[in-house]
């Protein structure tokens, strides 16, 4: 039954069928619950991804500002993270004060959108795909090990977005 719910099966035991009331809940209930879960999830995401003054991201911003001033990565300034992290931090350090938080939210929104399209490519209903994209995808990224500026976030986001684009073509 769980697989049927996640995959949006055509059987009457699925969560909600497209264009039918044969599911376990009326379609309007599923929409309200989905919208509520997505809203609660994104409130959590906004609070969880806020800038913290005492984490590694401050070092990334320092290296990024040095890069923006013309220093060369791994020659004039050193850190053990990948270049993408530092170049994003360089762009962020030149912007408005909350830009680092906005960049995190853009990465997480991209994860949500990509997860939605991946779920739709597997044939799930729009409601199930909305739950996958709006709730499951971002929460999987915001695990206990997450911190602002986590260096795996851009890589995971780009990978999911690429996968979603490839799957939309087929």
Instruction: Please compute the radius of gyration using only Cα atoms.
Output: 20 Å
Helical content band: 55-70%
Strand proportion? under 5%
Class of secondary structure makeup:
mainly alpha
The N- and C-terminal alpha carbons lie at a distance of: 27 Å
Flag low-confidence runs: 1-17
Q: Please state the average pLDDT score.
A: 78
Kindly state the number of beta strands.
0
Looking at the structure, what is the overall shape? elongated
Features of the shown structure:
64% helix; 170 residues; mainly alpha; 0% strand
What is the element layout, followed by pairings?
Layout: H1 2-7, H2 27-48, H3 56-68, H4 83-93, H5 99-121, H6 126-141, H7 152-169
Describe the structure.
The chain has about 170 residues and is mainly α. Helices cover about 65% and strands about 0% of the residues. It is built from seven helices and no strands. It has helices at about 1-5, 25-50, 55-70, 85-95, 100-120, 125-140, 150-170. Helix 3 crosses helix 4 and helix 5 (about 100-120) runs parallel beside helix 7 (about 150-170). The two termini are about 25 Å apart. The model is unreliable at about 1-15 (pLDDT under 50).
At a glance:
The chain is mainly α and 170 residues long. It has seven helices and no strands.
